[in-house]
């Protein structure tokens, strides 16, 4: 039996040997994929190890939780937050050998972030999302906090290839006002990673209510953003120290914009040429 | 003899066999490194192939140019611009086999961008720049166009770890006014890639005049930005289609911020904790 | 006796003749100053007609309310909101004679807004606030929605005269992060008018907790913003149609900046000269 | 005869008594309206005093100038700039009697700014501009420096009444990119006052080239902005100290938005209601 004050790992260890092979697979999967497990439904979780939803729920009860919501609440309470990021920072400060080459460590993690983001791409969703972007009357990109810069980059890059796009980066009153104009011909792209900012989720709600297509770029296909989206992309955001990395997100944006530029190449050409003419005429660039 | 209307490659081919081995090395180096060659001094260029500045200048004259400036003008006139980006786009559209997996192609290029950016890091410059950031009274990040989002990310990330930072992203009047306040205790970080935007270079000029430390993040250590900087970083920005990639820049920023967070870990911890308290108190995050 | 579903005016009319002269004064004052009455304490209200707090509370009970909070809830439920603005719009559409000169009507109201704002200035508070601004290490102006532009103008105008100032205009995550750096040497200016935006009030809370001086520019000295401020200014914001006017706010800002420019005239001169040199050197202006 | 190093006033005084009555009227008009005179054509100037263009040119020659351009260059060299604003500041510092009530002085000037702005309104132009705004597919407001905040307010206020509007406030690369999308169905509003910022004029040029309707809000109907506009408004911007006042501009914006809200009252109502619903649903306001 497990103690109700124990953490998830302790509870699993206490009963692990008595679990069925399927339950052991489930236990390992949950420990390795806590973000996913913290938001997935019982059937989504079960599908990962070829088990039924009922098996998942019994597993939760075996661990002493009040069903799946109980287990998920326990995971969320333990998941890294800014505060545990502080702890990670302090831990790493003492743990890092003096000889560690920090920049190279960061670059290595970011190569992994790109590779993991690449491997999570679903080609059919990618193509459908690109078609939506290329056909939109107007695109509004909603992002804030650590994802704000990536959202800004996406909106700018879409404008450069001839699409009407703008970024809304700080939630609040201005976001609500700007989104009010959107309808079925428009697209909202929402960016957000753990710990998800409420105002971005509000934006996706508002867009859905108004019949606007929603594309989410987020860290899990079961994140709250993904659940409110017509098309969702999962990005890897592992960081070296306290914070998350947006490198995988930026590379995904490169792919989306490159593909969108090919949907109507003559529109793309015209936009690039007109922009270039302005840059030259106004002497904005160093000759 | 060369025809004065010929391009650089034609001129080099016309005389290549009659060149000395050292001149041939120089010719190959210039053809492979046109960005560098278009801004480097004669002695910088010569150093790459172990030749003197005088050798470089004679080489230019052999090709029929009026010294190094003549050769550099010719390179710049041929270098890719937004307009040739249009041509690249059109070329790639016809050249891309239908089966090409565009997103994976983009991700592969971005992995290379990170690896090249990593290999260009000079550890001593990295550490010195990090010390400057960590000790600054105020940090102003100046960027615009394709680098604006990365500049925004840098300023936000520095604020999160407890440094006073802000981004100025559109040149013009507001940039001039904000920079007016900076002095010797402050740091300006300028981001810019080919084709360099004049207003960002103006910002670095203004900063230098006021005695402010300048860090440049740019695509060549001989770019105009690097020449106005106390510390310069070279980033790889190869793009799959018409545009440049900021993935290498973003990964470099991750490295800089991670290192800066370790300079004064207790300051970093306090900042993260204070921010977390506000996020919780104001219910900005989804629980 | 009054009916509990009646509005404030109906209740007052029903009992008016039976009220004491002092209570009648109080009734008239409340009807003429509903914004004030909806937030004031019993003693603040009483002071306006030279009555005690107990008199105010008895008056509320006479009207059938559960004390002052009951009366205030009733006022707020009746106060103009965006929705009643819709109604005003519709009413005015039908009520406006075809010959009405709308622009001249708007200008006339704005002249009144300035005159009312001027008459509400307390010279001692004005001078103290100006001294705080001129002595601040950094000034952060917080505003959003209809007041955002005025906040932007204030921050820019303060920068022009040599003070370190920035505007935070959209609440949310970025606001919380930026305010984290402020301490006792800094100043926050918060702008907000009915219906007060929660995030601006959060900013003033955060500033107070961190020991930062708070100046409020708001539509009532008993507004929630004024209650969290060390110095508060009351501005008139009457609009011709559905919306509020910021003309009075802008004129107050002109006065604050003009006065702040005189606190240290040589600093002001130096800042203006340095900005002018940049404008000329960078050819930002039309000659 | 006049000395070529003399200023305009000295030259006029030197010959005043020998001028014809018409030339004396012209001299007085020019001294009283230097902004206008510095940009007007000979026939525009002549029309003000019922004289021919030829009379204006002969007058300039009488003063020793090389025609009208010579006189205009002289005026511009003498017109207030930021530098002479420094001088005004220093002058006023010594000239202001200690007892001067600075805030009330500012408010009085701003009442005048509104009254002068009101008296300069041409009803037909006002109505035509409002129709253009109300019918636009998209409205882009371009402004920077001292007018940036007013431009921001205009864009926000237009969004609130259900029009698609955005502000571009810093010139540069982002402005050029965003304007590229505009065509004949769109409207650009440009704001600018002496000393006119080049990038805002560039924006109006770009808009005209693309067939976009241009509305200018500026300090003179002969300013460079007005000359590039389909509809131009003249605003009074007198300031108490070194800087210009935007109070007249803000009041004009109130008038434009109020009138635009009446063009399609049901659209306005729907927009206000939708925004209100979002504010309530997201708990953005203090209840």
UniProtKB/TrEMBL annotation, chains A, B, C, D:
Residue ranges constituting the SIS domain according to the UniProt record: 129-266
Keyword line: DNA-binding, Transcription, Transcription regulation
Highest taxon of the lineage: Bacteria
PROSITE patterns: HTH_RPIR, SIS
S-adenosyl-L-methionine in keyword set: no
Single Gene Ontology MF annotation: carbohydrate derivative binding
Domain HTH rpiR-type positions: 6-82
This protein's record includes keyword Lyase: no
A GO biological process held by the record: carbohydrate derivative metabolic process
Protein name: MurR/RpiR family transcriptional regulator
Species this chain originates from: Caldilinea aerophila
């Amino acid at each position: 039996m497990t103690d109700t004050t124990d953490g998830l790992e302790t509870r699993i260890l206490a009963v692990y040997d008595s679990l069925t092979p399927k339950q052991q697979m489930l236990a390992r999967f949950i420990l390795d994929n806590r973000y996913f497990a913290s938001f997935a439904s019982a059937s989504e979780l079960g599908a990962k190890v070829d088990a039924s939803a009922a098996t998942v729920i019994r597993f939760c009860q075996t661990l002493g939780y009040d069903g799946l919501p109980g287990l998920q609440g326990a995971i969320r309470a333990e998941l890294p937050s800014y505060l545990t990021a502080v702890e990670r920072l302090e831990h790493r400060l003492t743990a890092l050998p003096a000889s560690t080459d920090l920049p190279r460590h960061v670059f290595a993690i970011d190569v992994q972030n790109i590779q993991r983001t690449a491997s999570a791409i679903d080609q059919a969703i990618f193509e459908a999302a690109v078609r939506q972007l290329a056909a939109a009357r107007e695109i509004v990109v909603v992002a804030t906090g650590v994802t704000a810069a990536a959202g800004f980059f996406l909106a700018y890059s879409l404008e450069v290839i001839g699409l009407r796009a703008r970024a809304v980066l700080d939630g609040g009153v201005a976001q609500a006002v700007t989104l009010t104009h959107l309808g079925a011909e428009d697209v909202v792209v929402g960016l957000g990673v753990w710990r998800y900012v409420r105002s971005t989720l509000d934006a996706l709600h508002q867009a859905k209510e108004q019949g606007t297509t929603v594309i989410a770029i987020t860290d899990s296909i079961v994140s709250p953003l993904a659940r409110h989206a017509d098309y969702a992309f999962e990005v890897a955001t592992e960081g070296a120290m306290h914070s998350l990395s947006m490198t995988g997100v930026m590379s995904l944006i490169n792919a989306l914009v490159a593909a969108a530029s090919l949907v109507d190449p003559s529109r793309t050409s015209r936009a690039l040429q007109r922009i270039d003419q302005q840059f030259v005429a106004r002497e904005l660039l160093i000759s």
